[in-house]
Every structure is written in C-alpha cells, then in structure tokens.
Design brief:
homodimer, about 220 residues, mainly alpha, Arc Repressor Mutant, subunit A, Tetracycline Repressor, domain 2, 2 domains, globular, DNA-binding
Chain lengths: ~220, ~220
DNA sequence: GTTAATTATGCAGAGACTGCACGCTTTGTG
DNA sequence: CACAAAGCGTGCAGTCTCTGCATAATTAAC
C-alpha cells in the first residue's frame, strides 16, 4: 500500500492531487469549526491558518477570499455542453429550461460530500453576513445567465423584444424564485422527493401565489 | 448675500446642517466623477478625500464604507406606518401589497435629486462590482421583508404553513421580479408612464412567461 | 537522475475600516 | 456677550483582507 494500486483508478489522482485535497479539507474543517464557535466576523484568516497549520498566503491560494472558504470556492457555472443544450436545443419553455439548467448546475458540483454541504448551508443561513454574500454570488450568476438568455433568444429569432427589454432578467429572477424553495427542501432532505418533483411543487406554489384571489 | 437671508425658511436648517449637506455632496460628486474616470476598483478612498479635501476619517464618518458613497448611504427601509399598513390593513393580495410596499419604499428616499440618482444608477449598472453590491443590499431587504411577511401571516391566522415553509421567501423573490423591470423603466424615464402602470405591465409579463406554451 | 511544473511559504505593502483622543465650531442659555 | 454643552473634523495607531514577488521544497515527467 505504499504505492498506487492498479485496481483503484477512481480515487487515484496522484500524490499531488491527494495532498491538495487533504489540505483543502483541513482548511475547510478548521474554518467551519471556528465559525461555529466565534461566528463569521469573529474568525480571522490568521486563526484559520493557525488551526490548519498553513500560512495565510496558502489560504488565499486555495480560497481566493475569506468568504470563499465558507461559501465554497467554486461558484457553480454551466458547462459548455449545458450552454449548448440551453441555447440551441431548448426542448421546453424558456423558463422551464432555465430551471432545468439550474438543476444541472447544482447537481454538478457535488464534489463536496452532502453532509459538509448541509453544515455549510446551515452556517450561511444563520449568519446574515454570509447570507448576503451568497446572494451576491447569485447575482453574478444572474448576469451570466441573462447573457445566455439573450443568446437563446437570438438563436430562435428575436421578436417583440423592444416591448420588454429586460425580460431576460425577469426570467432569471423567476427561475431563481422557483429554484429557491426546491433547493432548500432538497438540502434538508436529500433522500426525499426527487428534484423534479420539488421543482414542480415550487412552480405550482408560485402559480398559486400569483393568481391568489383578494382575500379578507 | 454674505449672510442668511430671512426669506428662506424652507432650506434654513442651521449652519451646521448646511455645512454637513455641503461636504456630503462634495464627497459624492468627487466620488462619482472619479469613478467615471477610473472605475470603481480604480478609485481609492484616499483619492476621493484628496479631491473633496476632507480626511479619510471624515469620509467614513459620512458614508460608512466605500460602496456607501456609490450606492447611497441610506438603504431604503419601510417606515413604521408602512409596516402597520402591510401587516394589519392588507387591502389586497399578499404579493400585490408587497409590491406596493416596495413602491412606497422607493418613493420615500427621494431626498437626492433624480438626476444624480440616475447618474448613480448608470454607474452601478455599468460596473459589475457595484451591481453585485447593490444586489447584496437587496438581499438585506429580503431578510427584513420575509420577517414582515411572517408577521402578516400571523396576523391573518396561519393555515397550511407547514406545506411550504419558505413561501414567504418566494413571495419576496416574486415581488422583486415584478419590481425590477418596473423600477428600471421608471428610472430611465421618470416622466413616462406612472409607476402603477409599469408594475401592472410587469405583472402581466410575468404571467405570460409562466404560462408560456411550449414552443418550437 | 535531471529537468520542468506545482506548491508552500515569507515578506512587503496597499487598501478598507475602527476606536480613541484632541481641538475647533456651532448652538443654546442666561 | 460669555460660557457651557454638543457636534464635527481630524490625526494616529492599529487590525484585517488581500496581492505581487521571490524563494525553497516537492512532485511529475522524461
């Protein structure tokens, strides 16, 4: 067991990669533990580094920023295949396809184990400061996705786009609104209802809210 | 003209207040001008202070942060009257009332003249970094408004809230989606269609997007 | 085993931001 | 007008995040 076995092609990534992942996880653990105790503001990068036994410079080499270690350093981005699918294939409604694109993006970044992911999630939602940052990240994605919507519209042949010039942005916001509760419920119970169902529920809820009759 | 005239009771706020507003505007002007030239990242607080002839410490006394001077130092918040109206009166749908609450919040903070407001707006939207920050601010409002929705629901008597525990959050997101294009169009043409009409248009657009038939 | 790419680290420094104390100006009061 | 109270502008020291650069050690590739 001192050298790579031939029958373990899956997690055999070379010594370098393995070490990298190890320190990455060490830093993450240290950061999360310290945040549980002192809160986001109460933790300094220096503290994290001391606990993880790495230099501050190394910390910033791994996660580009302090928030990076809490939010996850890889913001979910669509792969070229996904982009092509969304822009050119477009099997369903713009909105529904966008939601599906979201779903795929989320599913992709499962490199971290779901347990740590949930822990991270809990910390984010219990720390207003982090929640805000997370929202800011979403905003980045929003910009990118809006551009994608433009490409899709161009591909299908624009029509009547002058009437509502910022329709793409609204579509993205709507997709967010649909994804939000679905993602939330899924993170709380990953083995519960399948994602498609959660999304369908969410869509139904939104329809109900919009068409809600005036009460009282 | 060397001393205060007696016939100007409106803007007579005392020497102190006037000076305060003066330096505030001086700093704002300096910041906006410098940002036009060098971009948000390219401007340092020190540069702004040098241009406005105040100490950095003073800058932070006025606007608590660098982004503060660009985004406006007073994030729009609902007044107690508005809160009461929303929680207890609730003349219409939850969603529509929330949109109306938004509209009122936006209308309130017209202490800055609309011209500078639009200039600021243009800068924000042309600077991705600032756009993100603005979104983060919205997120703060989101949290606050979600709490408000809970209060409203409690006031009306909760029912079936277990099915969709994060319905309030979705309502807020939807209200955002409705407000967004309306606000946008209003800022681009303040003397055009009245806000109510813009909102109605926006709502209609959203209905269309959600019910859009599968095409192609 | 030698060379090339990665990686970890230290160091210097920019830039945002805070608490504190001190001095000046404005304000209110008699 | 004098005098005290309050508010404001400022300098200073210091913390914290984050970056560029140089260097040494490690791993990979040949």
């Amino acid at each position: 067991m001192y050298f790579p076995a031939a029958g373990v092609p899956e997690s055999e990534l070379g010594l370098r990669e393995r070490k990298r992942l190890a320190t990455e996880r060490t830093i993450e653990r240290a950061a999360l533990d310290l945040a549980q105790e002192h809160g986001y503001e109460g933790v300094t990068v220096e503290m994290i580094c001391e606990s993880a036994m790495v230099s501050p410079r190394t910390f910033f080499n791994y996660f580009g920023s302090k928030e990076g270690v809490f939010l996850g350093h890889t913001p979910p981005r669509p792969t070229p295949e996904m982009i092509d699918w969304f822009v050119n294939e477009r099997p369903s409604t713009t909105l529904l396809d966008l939601v599906e694109l979201f779903r795929r993006m989320m599913s992709t970044r499962n490199r971290t184990d779901p347990a740590a992911m949930r822990e991270r999630r809990a910390l984010i939602h219990s720390t207003p400061d982090l929640a805000v940052r997370e929202f800011a990240r979403m905003a980045e994605a929003e910009t990118e996705l809006t551009a994608l919507l433009q490409r899709r519209r161009d591909a299908v042949g624009a029509e009547g786009s002058d009437v509502f010039p910022d329709e793409p942005r609204v579509v993205v916001l709507l997709a967010f609104a649909i994804m939000h509760p679905a993602m939330h419920r899924w993170l709380e119970d990953p083995d519960g209802a399948p994602q498609e169902e959660l999304i369908a529920d969410s869509l139904q809820m939104i329809r109900r809210i919009i068409d809600e009759p005036t009460h009282s």
